[in-house]
Amino acid sequence: MGNEAEKEKTEGQLLAEKLFFEIKNCWDTAAPEELEAVQRYGEGYKTFLDQGKTERECIRQSLDMLNAKGFTDIETLLGEPGSLLPGAKVYQNIKGKSLLFAIIGNRPLSEGVNVVGAHVDSPRIDLKTNPLYENTDLALFDTHYYGGIKPYQWTTIPLAMHGVLIRKDGEKRELCIGEDPGDPVFTITDLLPHLAREQMQKKAAEFFDGEDLDILAGSRPYKDPKAKDRVKLNLLNLLYEQYGIQEEDFSGAEIEFVPAHKARDIGFDRSMIGAYGHDDRSCAYAALHAVLSFASVPVPEKTVICLLTDKEEIGSMGNTGAQSRFFENFIAYLCSKTLTAYSGIALRQCLGKSSMLSADVNAAYDPNYDGVYDKKTASYFGKGIVLSKYTGRGGKVGGSDASAEFCQKVQGILNKNKVRWQYGSLGKVDKGGGGTIAQFIANLGLDVLDCGIPVLSMHSPFEVISKIDLYTTYKGYIAFLREV
Fold first, then answer.
1. What is the pLDDT of residues 75-120, one digit of tens each?
2. Any idea of the CA torsion for 459, 465, 471, 476, to the nearest 10 degrees?
3. What is the Cα–Cα distance from 265 to 53, expressed in whole angstroms?
4. What φ, ψ does residue 404 adopt, rounded to 5°?
5. d(CA 459, CA 278)
6. Which strands make up the sheet holding 215-218, listed edge to edge?
7. Are 159 and 258 in contact (CB under 8 A)?
8. 30, 34, 35, 36 alpha-carbon torsion, rounded to 10°
9. How many angstroms separate the CA atoms of 313 and 436, rounded?
10. Cα distances (angstroms) measured from residue 270 to each of 114, 259, 277
11. Is the Cβ–Cβ distance between 207 and 179 less than 8 Å?
12. HSE of 341, CA atoms in CB hemisphere, 13 A
């Protein structure tokens, strides 16, 4: 019957099948056993999100997985040059906020390595250095938002407090308040509509100034009526009794407020996941598992590396961001321990012959906001991993533009391994834009292509992805890492 249908096709239909690039829905092409794997993979990912709402928590989870797979901290290796043999599994923890790990391959590093890199920070609300104050018998936290957000989306939702303080005596205290069912939560208040006539006339970007995003923290005064700022005092007393924390300890702390809700299935068909932090923990999770998939199989031909980095949402600055030297330093260390004669030239050869997928999300086409998307180049839910040849804004400013040769190489790898892919760009020209870590790694000489998962409601407290796109991306990363 199938052969008869083929014979009935016209010349034009057959030519179209040959020449057109048809992007199919992955749900239609997946086998039943693969659909079961999609759901299982989604469940593990939701747990990862719920337990990793900050960059530190994501790195801690990742380290637990690495240790379970037999990886060794590179800082403990004291061997001579050439002592790191094929099959060795090593990692480097960058201040608890970024992470590099590798499985050494059969081929020398001078022939290059295969890398998948993602970031694990997400937009959020941070505390200022002197955050706690009292106003009209209310205690509030003064904040400074982190990353690109729409401020109004962060009001009137439950927020959880995560972070690290170092006490005056040097002891580290970690906080996580608002995630357990019995915990209190926090919130940023909004103006009631009865009094918001003037506010409602403003542009959305002017609804709230950054200075207005202060977090409600308490309202009960300390029992001594003669004390000053009794609500603030009562709150500090509670923190001191429970954690030994004093007000001075907030000055250098890293305290983040994030949505208190859990990752949940979306839709009657449970085909999607709604959660905080899909950007970019969805790609980080896929990259992490893609490299770990090589931990218990025959040694890869080329060394495979995963890069999980911090600070992408604010430009990849600092010593835990992709603009720092830690990636280059890690490669240099691997070269020094795998090659019998290390030199700076060997490092440059390795970087120049290496390839990386910048594992970051893209904006999924949203029919509610049709006007900002170019339908011909937009990415869509359920259509698989998204390849973004270039990023940036306006005239590609601040972005990375992959070469035609490398784009075709990645497309060929995905096609050979039957991994569904689509192309995608971040909206219409001059409607906005954005960048990733790709530009900074490309500066070192690597071939780099942005490659990730389409997301709805990006940078909001509750983003949405498709489960099958997540799983397809994971399979695509594995296919790329396997290539010589």
1. 888 677 777 899 999 999 999 999 999 999 999 999 999 999 999 9
2. -50
3. 18
4. -60, -40
5. 9
6. 172-177, 159-166, 254-259, 124-135, 138-146, 215-218
7. yes
8. 170
9. 9
10. 34, 22, 19
11. no
12. 1
Residue 283 tokens read as 């790609």
Order the strands of the 264-266 sheet from edge to edge. 264-266, 272-275, 463-466
Other Cβ atoms less than 10 A from the Cβ of 268: the count is 6
Q: What span, in angstroms and rounded, lies between the C-alpha atoms of 236 and 232?
A: 6
Measured CA to CA, the distance from residue 87 to residue 102 in angstroms comes to: 10
Question: What's the farthest any 2 CA atoms get from each other in the chain?
Answer: 94
Which amino acid is present at 483?
E
- Could you say which DSSP state residue 262 is in? P
Pairing of strands 272-275, 463-466: antiparallel
Split the chain (484 residues) into runs of 10 and give each run's mean pLDDT.
Answer: 68 90 91 94 97 97 96 84 88 97 94 96 96 96 95 96 92 94 96 90 86 95 94 95 92 96 97 96 97 91 96 94 95 88 86 96 94 91 94 82 94 95 86 86 95 96 98 97 88
Give me 261's structure tokens. Answer: 């809700």
| Torsion sign, CA atoms 427, 432, 437, 441 | positive
- CB–CB of 453/362 below 8 Å? yes
Which domains, and CATH codes, for the chain? 13-122+276-482 (3.40.630.10), 124-259 (2.30.250.10)
In the chain, the amino acid numbered 87 is G
Which residues contact residue 154 at a Cβ distance below 8 angstroms, ignoring those fewer than 6 apart?
Answer: 125, 145, 188, 213, 461
Instruction: Look up residue 213 and give its amino acid.
Output: L
> In whole angstroms, how far apart are CA 232 and each of 135, 239, 401?
9, 11, 51
Q: In what order do the strands lie in the sheet with 89-94?
A: 72-73, 89-94, 98-103, 304-309, 114-119, 355-358, 447-452, 385-388, 421-423
Q: Which helix (DSSP H) or strand (DSSP E) does residue 243 occupy?
A: helix 230-243
Task: List residues bridging with 464 in a β-sheet.
Answer: 274, 456
Amino acid identity for residue 309 in this structure: T
**Spatial separation of the C-alpha atoms in residues 21 and 38, rounded to whole Å:** 25
What type of residue is 165?
L
The contacts of residue 86 (CB under 8 Å, 6+ apart) are 104, 105, 106, 299
Written as one letter, the residue type at 439 is Q
Q: Which two tokens stand for residue 84?
A: 């790191």
